[in-house]
Amino acid sequence: MMAWMNRESLALTVQEDQAVYWSRSRGKLWRKGESSGHQQVLKDIRLDCDADVILLKVEQKGGIACHTGRRSCFYRSLQDGEWVSTDPVLKDPDSIYGKH
Amino acid sequence: MMAWMNRESLALTVQEDQAVYWSRSRGKLWRKGESSGHQQVLKDIRLDCDADVILLKVEQKGGIACHTGRRSCFYRSLQDGEWVSTDPVLKDPDSIYGKH
To answer: Looking at beta carbons, which residues of chain B come within 8 Å of A46?
Structure first.
């Protein structure tokens, strides 16, 4: 998955040993997994050569990073000019987010 | 590595079966490897859930993606509050870019 961080979310990620992002759409900190339970426990945190991208290596709780209930957000592959969903939904989002 | 794409670079990536990015700093298309020889041959191209991030799976020519001569741009790891370079330089950048 890809998400945004600001200075505070990065500091909290290190402090809490779990991924904390900055939700630009909601304008607030976002502790990954706060609704879903799918926290990301920090294993390693890496910085790129021009120091503007961070790569988190994590233990993904529940094995699901994506809000669609899939392991990864990158579940579509370009095949013959069409985006094709190739990865299975592991858990119904309604049950992840408690909408019954 | 992380880089930017625009519509044209994405189309060319698919058409040429190799990574083509948009260099924001240079304001031009950037065929990865055009100077270094470290092209990225396309294996798979993936789209994330909200359709604003693309993940390329590639065969990395020369085994070096980073302009510093390392395999990956993410060669620094946060250890005790300091960014520590953990990954080796595989090839001197001066020899990659022909500065003798």
So the answer is: 74-78
State the best of A14, A45, A46, A71 to mutate against chain B, taking most chain B CBs within 10 Å.
A46
Q: What is the DSSP string of B74-91?
A: --EEEETTEEEE-S---S
pLDDT digits (tens, 9 = 90+) for A45-59: 999 999 999 999 999
| Single-letter code of the amino acid located at B70 | R
Residue B40, min C-alpha distance to chain A (Å)? 17
ipTM above 0.90, yes or no: yes
CB contact under 8 A, B49 and A55: no
What pTM does this model have?
0.94
